[in-house]
Amino acid sequence: MHWISGHDDTVAEWAGRRFGCDFYARYAAFGIGDIDGTLIGAAVFSDYYPGGNIQLSYTGSGTLSRAIIKNIGYYAYEVLGASRITCKPPRSNAIARKLLPRAGFEFEGILKRYYGPKKADDALVYSLTKEKAARWMKGKKHE
Q1: Residues 91-120 pLDDT 10s
Q2: What is the pLDDT of residues 56-69, one digit of tens each?
Q3: Residues of 112-139 as b/e, b for ≥16 C-beta within 10 angstroms?
Q4: Does domain 2-137 fall into CATH 3.30.930.10?
């Protein structure tokens, strides 16, 4: 796998197709590519408040690893200057419910029926502050 940066629009468009949504102006993104450069994962950062929160949307079947989470943290905190990352996966996303707490994200609450009319469509809100992320970000540089 390798990092794809400098192609925010292409990466966000690819991720949006997978999510079934569009990302609007004022976002940043980086992709994860396979050996031939084909996108297999994407991190899109949106709803940014300078020096404050940034919303993370990640997609990529089987691609989310500790190394990618470290690069997400580095990119959000060091490159974009955020102090907090927020993720809102649907309740139905069992992988996110398992991986986010392992990466230090704290569960904050539920946004009922955020993605649709069923309980499985509830958004689970997780956050990670820069201070809490510092323990695993140490020495990591975005490649």
Answers
A1: 999 988 998 998 889 999 999 999 999 999
A2: 999 987 777 778 88
A3: eeebeeeeeebbbbbbbbbeebeeebee
A4: no
Quick one: tokens of 33?
């590519």
Whether the CB-CB separation of 30 and 44 falls below 8 Å is answered with: no
Sheet holding 28-33, edge to edge: 2-4, 28-33, 39-46, 53-59, 84-87, 123-129, 106-111
Q: In the chain, what are the domain boundaries?
A: 2-137
- What is the model's pLDDT at position 142? 46
> Cα–Cα distance between 87 and 133 in angstroms, integer?
14
Degrees to nearest 5, angle at CA 134 with 130 and 137: 110
| 90, 123 Cβ separation under 8 angstroms | yes
Angstrom distances, CA of residue 30 to CA of 88, 97, 109, 114: 19, 22, 27, 25
Task: Give 10's pLDDT tier (boundaries 50, 70, 90).
Answer: very high
pLDDT of residue 46: 94
